[in-house]
Design a protein that fits this description.
binds fe (iii) ion; 11 helices; 65% helix; mainly alpha; single chain
Length: 192
């Protein structure tokens, strides 16, 4: 973690761009990520910064997200073009670097991949993905109680469980499934 990045300043800046409700989710992810970091031996500051910034691009419009990708030379996938909101992870990582001064690759990746996960995730990436799903403000997903407990017992098992529930939910709701989520799930269940 870069020494010059102050948590206080980051939080002040995030408070300016998020609604009260989103801010509550952000804080929830920040402290849940910190708790998981204690359990799994990751830097608490890294976990808190990644948690604090993971949705920093969530308030952007589809148009703004696509524009930010272009500016950063990222070519969105076909799915991402059809569902630009999913790009708030990628774009969040671009902003974390350019607007919030974060340079640590691991933190930027945790932000970029918090919506879908990916193959070979670092412990911090898994922590942010899981914290986003289980933070105390969440109440809609199935099996939350079980998954919350599991997250503190077996990080990979919790990751797989969340991926599975997400895929089942999307299939049932006729939501479009991001192929990245499916790839992550296959990778962690040894099907790839
Ligand atoms: Fe998000
Ligand atoms: Fe989130």
């Amino acid at each position: 973690m870069d020494k010059e990045v102050s948590m206080k300043k980051l939080r002040k800046n995030i408070e300016k761009v998020q609604t009260a409700k989103r801010l509550e989710h952000t804080m929830g992810v920040e402290y849940t990520a910190a708790c998981l970091a204690m359990k799994y031996g990751v830097s608490l500051t890294d976990a808190r910064v990644a948690g604090l910034l993971h949705d920093c691009a969530k308030c952007m419009t589809d148009e703004e997200l696509l524009k930010a990708c272009k500016k950063n030379h990222y070519d969105p996938s076909a799915f991402e073009k059809r569902n630009p909101f999913i790009l708030h992870g990628r774009v969040g990582a671009f902003l974390a670097k350019s607007e919030y001064g974060i340079e640590q690759e691991d933190i930027l990746n945790a932000i970029a991949f918090h919506t879908t996960g990916r193959r070979n995730m670092s412990v911090l990436e898994k922590i942010i993905f899981i914290a986003d799903y289980i933070e105390p403000g969440r109440n809609k997903a199935a099996h939350l109680e079980e998954i919350r407990k599991l997250a503190f017992e077996d990080l990979d098992a919790a990751l797989i469980r969340i991926l599975e529930d997400t895929l089942v939910y999307l299939k049932n709701s006729e939501g479009e499934i991001d192929p990245m989520t499916e790839i992550t799930w296959k990778y962690y269940t040894n099907q790839l």
